[in-house]
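User: I've been trying to design a sequence by hand for this structure and keep getting stuck. Would you show me what you'd pick, starting by listing the structure so we're on the same page?

Assistant: Good idea, let's start from the same input. This is the structure you sent:
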């Protein structure tokens, strides 16, 4: 669940920095079962879906069916992408 606080209320003080929440993440030794308490980044009502290769939490299955997904954007210019210069990540 995500809690949003209204900053227009009187005497409201916006905190400068909030601590990062820990996520409870359990992996079965066989790696065939995973459970966690991380909510879907889109709807915040269902559990997120974990990418087993990268460990990145993505939208729940319902949000994925609605078209939501996580994408990595390559912000290099077209010619740097063409010659693969300055790749921000290891190319496969
Ligand atoms: Zn969702």
């Amino acid at each position: 669940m995500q809690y949003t606080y209204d900053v227009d209320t009187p005497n409201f003080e916006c905190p400068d920095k909030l601590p990062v929440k820990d996520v409870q993440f359990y992996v079965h030794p066989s790696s065939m079962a995973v459970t966690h308490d991380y909510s879907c980044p889109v709807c915040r009502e269902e559990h997120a879906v974990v990418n087993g290769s990268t460990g990145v939490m993505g939208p729940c299955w319902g949000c994925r069916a609605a078209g939501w997904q996580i994408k990595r954007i390559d912000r290099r210019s077209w010619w740097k992408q063409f010659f693969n210069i300055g790749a921000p990540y290891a190319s496969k």
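That's my pick for every position. To get oriented when you compare it with your attempt: The chain has a mean pLDDT of 86. Residues 40, 42-43, 46, 59-60, 62-63 surround zinc ion (CB under 6 Å).
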